[in-house]
Amino acid sequence: MTDAQDARSLATELLIRWEKERAYADILLRESLAKSAMAGRDKALCAYLFYGTVENLTLVDYLLAGASKYKLKKIHPRVLAILRVAVFQILFAGKVPLHAVLNEAVNAVKRVLPKAAGFSNAVLRTLSRYRTEQPEIAEEDPVKRLSILYSHPEEITGLFCRLFGEKDAEAYLRYDNSAPPAEIRVNRLKCREAALEEAFQKEGAELQKTGLPGFYTLAGQREIAELAAFEEGLFAVQSRASALSVMLGAPREGEFVIDLCSAPGGKSFFAAELMQDKGSILARDLYPGRVELIREGAKRLGIGSIRAETRDARKEDPENRGKADLVIADVPCSGLGVIAKKPDVKYKSFEDIGALPALQLEILRRAGEAVRPGGRIVYSTCTVNPAENGEVVDRFLSENPEFTRENAPMPAGYAVKNGEKTLLPFRDGTDGFYFCRIKRKESGA
Fold this sequence. Notes:
Number of strands: 12
Largest sheet: 8 strands, mixed
CATH class of the largest domain: Alpha Beta
Number of domains: 4
Structural class: alpha/beta
Helix content: 40-55%
Oligomer: single chain
CATH topology of the largest domain: Rossmann fold
CATH architecture of the largest domain: 3-Layer(aba) Sandwich
Number of helices: 18
Radius of gyration: 24 Å
Order of helices and strands: HHHHHHHHHEHEEHEHEHEHEEHHEHEEHE
CATH superfamily of the largest domain: Vaccinia Virus protein VP39
């Protein structure tokens, strides 16, 4: 078996496990590749095939169902997984010759279930026309059509259509199915932009500047953790959207900051940089393993002002009541703004999403208890769902008249209005993100 076949075989195996175990795709892939002896190029191919198939699964299954004489649930699970990966390649992997896609898939089926080889060959040849043709979606309802074409559940597609209109909703869905590059920022506690750029040049890695000073995208498929500049702590992996929420909080030297849901620590790390590592940051997370990631990241970046601890953000904290200058509340959310990076997020149950605002409000209440008079909270999510964003803030403010939204200076192009902003991928070229600055009024105000 060639390395390329190994990559396809592992992608097929991961697809089976992802569907059966309902595991997180990124964790499943990362753990599997760490154990694999494949070369970096073939690991990248495996990731592309696995993520791509997961990302486009609704469309793939729609086309398979139309070409198959059997219902999909009647097809042997391993054969179905092989067909799914092959159909993804037919649709999107244009650089791979069509005959190679078909031959490799049919040969893989023969190894699993020889009697299904003829059926598989017929199905794939029927669908091979979509290498050059737009898939035919026989649905008049725009929500259903877009849902199938871009492989998003109808609930999410319908939400986007209601929020942004059909044209912009399609632009959003198209972005979700893209592959945005990794975003990093220079660690100014250790170096400046010129030094970071030089370090990347020495490693043959290509950085591209963004519109936000100190922030870059990393071109190509590179294992970031393997770069010497990463080990030396010259940069942190962080999206511009995430960093902008910290900028809105404007942490300053000497302040006491609490980050309620910190792991893996990106916001705390950036806050420490903005504070020149002078002050105190209490970075918390619910899970000990994730808290250890915060400690490791702070050590790598040369940060001494962060203390990481395991704690449930929903619990009261009498020890720190009214003491924090800034509380960062980046709460658990539906993740609808980062589907492009985590494609399986879109398969979350809408019932589960509906339960999130109550949890988010509970955490925001704890943030309100922790901040001092005159201090501030930054509430943020990586979703564009108003029920998890402005509506949660509205509810909190209605319960707590001593708090109010507050504007603050922001980088050009990212000004907030009434203390809040929603970033949209198709408009802003960033993750979908919401952040809001909330001030606790001075005593007696």
